[in-house]
Structures are given as C-alpha cells and as structure tokens.
Records
---
Amino acid sequence: MNPACKLQLKNVSKLFRTARGGTVQALAPVDLDIPAHRFVTIIGPSGCGKSTLFNIISGLTEPSTGEILVDGKTVNGTSGIVGYMLQKDLLLPWRTILDNVILGMEIRGVPKREAKAKALPLLRKYGLGGFEHSYPSQISGGMRQRAALLRTILYDKDIILLDEPFGALDAQTRALMQEWLLDLWDDFQKTILFITHDLEEAIYLSDEVYIMSARPGSIKAHLHIDLERPRKPTIVTSKRFVELKEEALRILSAEALKAYDQEKAG
Amino acid sequence: MSMTEKAVIAERPVAVRKRETAGKSSWIQKEQRPLNGTIVQISRFLVFAAIVALWEIGATLGWINSFFWSKPSDIAATWWIIVQNGSAWSDTLFTFRSTIAGFVIGTLAGAVIGLTFWWSRLYAQTIEPFVIMFEAMPKLALAPIIVLIFGIGLASKVAMAVAITIVITILTTYNGMKSVDKDLVRMIYTLGATRWQVFSKVVVPWTIPSIISALRINIGLALTGAIVGEYIGSQHGLGRLIFYAGQTYEISLIWAGILNLSILSMVLYLAITWVEKKLLKGFMH
C-alpha cells in the first residue's frame, strides 16, 4: 500500500433491491486512491451514483462489495470517520450559529466552553462574526452554507466529503464560497472530496478530477489538473484551463448522452 | 348582574385579538377602513346587555320558565353567596388542582410514551393500533370504573384528566416525531453521533413544538375529565356543586356553578395560551 494514500476504495460497488424484488446496480466496482491533502472532484451525469459513493465512504451505507480504507484501515459502514457536508446546510433551526458549528465537537465530547472558544475566532475569521448568536433562519443562504462548512471542518477529520455544497447558491455567492473553501482547505490541510455538476468549478478547485460514467456509475476518466496554485478567478480564460475543459466536456457529453438514452429506455 | 358582566367582559381581549389576526391574514381589505375598536367593544357590550336584560325581563314576566332557566339577578345573588361563604373558592380550587395535576401528568407521560416510539419501529407499529383504539373510545365512559378504582377523592379526578389527555398527546407527539427531517438525522450520524445523541439532539427538539401545540387542547380536556369525575362521585369540586344543585332543583346554583367553571376554564385557557407563546418563542426562530 502506498503510505501517502489517505483514502482508498477497492472494488467498491453497490446493488440496491427494488420494491419488486429485483436489483439495480447503482455503482459498478470503483477503485480510487486519494493522497493526503489533495482536492479531488468527482463529476458525472445525474443519477450516476456519486452520492451513493459518498454515502458509502461516510459509512451511512454499507457497500455491496469491496473495501474502504482510511489510513490503511478498513472502515466499511463506520460513520463519523470522515466529515460530510450535503447540498442542504442542515443547520439545526433551534440552535444558534455558534451552537450549530460546535455540534461535531459536542458529540465527540469536547466540553462546550472549550468548543466555543475554538469556534469563535474561526467564525470571525471566516465572515460570520457578529452572527454567532443568530439563528439559521435569520441569516442568508450563503452564510448558512459557510456555517455548515465550518461545522464540518471543526469536526476535525482529515477527510472531508462535500456533496454539491454550493449547488443551491447564486453565481456571485458561489464564486465567493469557492475562494473561501480554497482558503479553508489551505489553512486546515484537509483532504477534500468534492461532488459537483459544474465542470468549471471542478477544474478551478481541484488537483484531480474523476469523471464518472452513466449508471451503473464507475470511474470513466481521470484528469490531473496541472494549473498552478494559488489560482486567480481569471484563470478560467487561460489556454490550459480551456484545454482541460474541452477534454472533460468531450468525455462528459458522451456519458450524459448514454444516461439520457438509458432514461428513455428505462 | 354586574359580576356576570365583568366575567364576560374579561373574555373580550382574546376575542378581539383573534378577529384581528384572522382579518389580516385572510382578507385583502381594499376599500374598507379598519373598524374602530371602541365601537366594536361597545356593540358587543350592548348585545350582551340585551341578552341579559331579555332573560331577566322574560323570566320576570313569565315568558321564560324561571324554574328551569332561573334569571340573571337570582344567579348573581346565588353566586355572590357562594363567593362570600367560601364554597366557590374551595370547590374551584379542588377542580383546579385535579385539572392541573391531570394535565401535567397526562401531557408529560403522553409525550414521553410518544417519544419512546422512536426507538423501535417494531415496537411503534405494534403499539400504534392499540393507542388509536384507546383514542377512539369515549373515555368519559370510563368514569364509573375510574371512580370505583381510585375512590371519590382527588385521585379519581386526576386519573380521569390523565386518561383523557394522555392518548391524544401520545399521538400528537408520535406524528410530530415521524415528520423529523431524515437529512438532519443523516447529518448528525455523519458527525459520529450515537443513537442516544440523535434522539436527544435532533428528534426531541424537533418534536417539542408538536408537544407544545397539544397543551391548549389538553387543558380543556383535563378540565372536562375532572368535572366528569366529580359528577360520578366526589365530595368537592365545581362538578359536584353543579351535580348536587341539579339533584336538589337549585337552578340558580347550577348556573352559578357553571359561571364559576367558565371563569376557571377561561383563566386556564389564557394562562396556557400565554405559556405556549412563551415556549414557542423561545424555541422557534
């Protein structure tokens, strides 16, 4: 085993039983090696099993075959090993932002006062200063999403899964959030696994982009993004960026077509 | 008569508030000017005064059989007597105590039982039809048995109030709990929560507003239970006062007891509405 590998998937697949007693293959066997501190994005047509993959890695679902290894140890079906953030912010409406952000630490048994002391400077640093004692319904969608992300970061796991975290935000907020995420990633040295539908977002943020095939999902292609960091937002117009985007688009559109045909047939 | 008036006037603020909020949300008032509050109050008072006056005059002139209907002046006089000799207070206090005890026990126990349903689907689905069966049963019919079991003291009234509030609270709690956002549960599991932590940090807080919404219904139900318990067998309470007055044909005393009961019911309702508002405000944002 490669010691630098933070997260490994070996032959991981998922079969779902349908109500009629049949089975549907949601995920074809997937192998992935993800080194520590990388920003890795998974992109693919809708319904390709990206979210199933994340549910398996986070331990919410057991895989039908295969193994998930974190730091070389099998963690199949164990939740709480990785940080996981969904598209919805899922803040608890009856808790203040501060109390929401410390939820992960609270569950781990960190004393509340200590957890708050740790969270407060971060809230201020990442643009939530002055809103610590607000409730989720009192702040904007972008701020809620930031709070949810901080909660995930403060849960303090080396690996963080982000399932379309900015999917519901408007374009401007989304651009800001991307910058902000890169800052966080840089500051906390996490390994990030990111799902998105947005190819530009994928290339802009990532070190590696994996393209998944239509259902049953499997890794179709791998793009190494060799753009230098730190990246400026204007990088999207550079020659290399456009080349990478073209290559990805070619693969993606073929898969999207296949997914469309499947949907028509099925 | 003046006392009767005061008691009914006390009800007005609630009625006014309700009407106003209903007006704001459900009508688009285009060319209607808002009504002057004082005029509304005066016209309500006039309606009330007219009813009381008609009753009094009708009973005096023999249009209404005053043997069954009594008349406002007699009722007020009787009410004044029981207020002065203290029996109004002690009976009201007795009914108040059993109502509150039954309300608190029934609501708390119902909420706790409802919440236990989260722990096992097999358990919840096995028990649910029995709870619904018990809810469908008219629980007032249990009164004779409950009085036999618990005696004619406070305990049987409390038991009646509990029987009548507990089931509806279980069902309200269970339904509120079933609506818990599955994604919130998933989220807290990914933070490594144990089942107990999922329960205490997501499921219980999620369900609390449903439980709070049961309070206002429960206070009325608890009072009904306590009164029926007193009808069947008791030495104290407003229910016993009314029942006793009925058996001895003291019609004014029946009405005086009902008047007292209405005041108690209104005070309880207003108090619970206030508590409910405070609780929800502290909870929902």
Note: The CA atoms of residues 181 and 277 of chain B lie 24 Å apart.
---
Amino acid sequence: MAAPDSLPAPLGLLAELTHRCPLGCPYCSNPLALDKRDDELDAAAWARVFREAAALGVLQVHLSGGEPAARRDLAEIVKAAREAGLYSNLITSAVGLTAQTLAALSEAGLDHVQISIQDSDEASADHIAGYKGAWARKHAAAGEVARLGLPLTINMVVHRANIGRIEPMVELALSLGASRAEIAHVQYYGWALKNRAALMPTREQVDIAVRQVELLRARHHGHIVIDAVVPDYYARFPKPCVGGWGRRSLNVTPAGKVLPCHAAEVIPGLEFWSVRQHSLLDIWQASPAFMAFRGTDWMKEPCRSCDRREQDFGGCRCQAFLIAGDARAADPICHLSPHHALVVQMAEARAEVGYSYRSL
Amino acid sequence: MDQPVTQISGSARPRLPRGVRLTHNEAQGGWLLLAPERIFKADAISAEILKRCTGEVTLDTIVDDLARAFAAPRERIHADVVKLLGSLADKKLLEL
C-alpha cells in the first residue's frame, strides 16, 4: 500500500547493512556509537524492507555501511533489492570486495557501484584510510567493476589533506573507467565532527577547489560527469538537507532503526521506530521522528517567514542542534541565523593534530 | 535546455547503458529514468522515445516510428529526439 496523497512519496532508501568496516577514515559519517554485528538485520528482513519501500514509492536503494562487503550475504541482499524492483547502488570502500563477490553481485542484478578513494597519492590515501594497502585494493576492485561492465562512480571525500589534488583525483577516476565522479567536501557529523579541526580546509582552499571543479567539468564534458557536494561551513545559505525532513528519503540502520537522515540520532528526544516492530509505511506516516520536522510548521524565525523555506527547509536539523543547541533553529550555516558567527569561528578553528580514526 | 554537445547520426542505434533503467511507478506518478545517484521524470513523449532505445533500431527508424504513431511532422519529432538523446548522451546516460 502506498502512502496517502497528503504525504510525499520517498524516492531513496539508504540501507546501512553493517557498521563494520576495515577502514578508519576520520570523516566517517557513521555515529560514534556503532551497531554490533549480532544486532544486524538478516537478509530476509532486508528483503521485506525493500518490498515495503518499493510499495511506498522508493526507486533507489543505496547499500551502504560501514562496509557492505563485510556482509557474507551481500549478493542475496542485492538480489532481494532487484526482485523488489529497486535500483541498487553499492556504496563501498572496495576493501574486502573480491572479484568473486563482484561477479556474484553483478549476476544478482546490481545496477551501479560507487567506490571511495581517499587521495590520488597512494601514501596519503592509505594514511587517511588508516589502512596500509587500501589504495592498491581499490584499484584492483575498480578494474574488476569495469571488466564486468558495471557503471562506476568514484567518490572522493575532500578535506584539508587532499583538497589541492582534485585534478589528479578526477584523472584517476577517468583512468579507472568511472563515468561519474563525486567530489564531496566533508560534512561535519559523526566522526567527521570529532575530527573537524584536523579536516577543515581554509576558505581560500575551498574557493580554489570550487573553481577547479568548474574547469574540470568543462574539460571532461561528455566523458565523465562530475557532481560536487559543497562545503557548507563557507556557504551563505544552508543545504536542503536530505531534500527536506521526511520528504524524499529514509535511512535504515544496521539494527533496523529508521531515521529521516543518517545523523538524526544526535538530536535528543526523537523517538525512532524499528522495522522489527513496524512496517515502513507506518514509520513513514506516523513515527514521531519523521513527524518532528516534516513540512514547515515546526519552524521558528528566521525560517518561518523566509522565502526559501520550501527550498532549503531550514537546512539541517542535526547541524542546528549541534551548533545552535536547538533542533528547531535555523541551520547556523545560513547567514540569517543568529548563530552564524559560531560557524565562522568553527571554520577558523583549524589545528594540525592527528586524526581520531573511526573504530568500534 | 542548452543544445547538447553530442551529435547523433541517423544510423546510430541508441541504447540505455547498464545502470540506466526506464521504470514506471504509480506512487511517483509515472515514468522515470533511473541512473546512478539520479532520477529523471520522463514525460509521456520522452518515455515513448526511451522505450525505443533498445540498441536494435536506428535513430531514423525511431523517428519514423514516432512520427507515424503520433501523426506529427518528422522534422519536429527528429528535433525532439536528438535534443533528448543528445543531452542524455552528454550525461553518459545513453550509448550510441
């Protein structure tokens, strides 16, 4: 059964299959408290979630983690997504993703693979990932993806240590056979927030990077699509986080909790429902967490009377809580927010310190 | 929409590559083109064009077929088809 007309139909489901991951990237968006293996949903539960998602209007499922390849039953999960009629996208570090697994995933109907790379420079890449040999393994896996004829996106998370190498990173994506590159500036949640001072680039670096992406887009037009996730600490307006709360997407954690966005658990007092007790339709329609910031009624000034309220939906609720201390406030990224000065200060608070690597 | 960079000859046999799928979904209100990290709404005409991009028939055949099916001038159909397919090819969403 689909959602009633008054509710928007979601388009995407982020399925966090596991929080296990061999890498330790300091900008990981996972929460600091990670779900344990024993609590993970099994393949049959995921299959049910996919069927319910498709009925709700979801078109694409993003199989993520942690590292989804840490799951032995990944091919079974991909097959279930295909059988539910969903477009499946594997978001992987590619470490632990063998040629054999990839062949099985391709056979199971996987639509697209996204591999992250940490840098174009091997030593730097392995340092950022906290894993020696990661770069070489990613290359091998990308080659295998190309050999199988699966479309490939190379995702590059950009921060102070690699922001000067966007051009060689795009060249690398091209040489790996990617048809799409994603330049994603770090978003400061989870482990990334913990490492903010070590990761934050300067405004000048960000300006250069933005111009660089424009040049690369023009140069490689028709050969590779370059999408960019902008660094919001230096923006004037906030991002329309998850396309609006409870409007376009759902996130299911390894243990089955359904969140409006992957970081939502940082907001105190929200009640999340689990797919173990509820159908996805029930959760989308009625779970307190999804109801909390849906639409515009919850807004305070300056959002409430703002012309952009249906455009950026007040920005990110998590960031409003994390910086302004109030999840109903305007995202402090917005220059109209009374807390915007804090963002400016935080962007300046850079420090040459070692990373706090993600770990269980 | 800007004019696409990609030019398509009448003998090209356009097809949707792996990772790009045309689908119909009631809850989303019609035809959609699913691609890596993106979703495009396809209007009725676009859907008719895309359904014919199987890699088996030529662009000329597709245009003739649509001109007949919609009893529309061939030149106009041709212009619509090369504009849509050219812009998809620019985005790596179509193989020629």
Note: The CA atoms of residues 63 and 75 of chain B lie 9 Å apart.
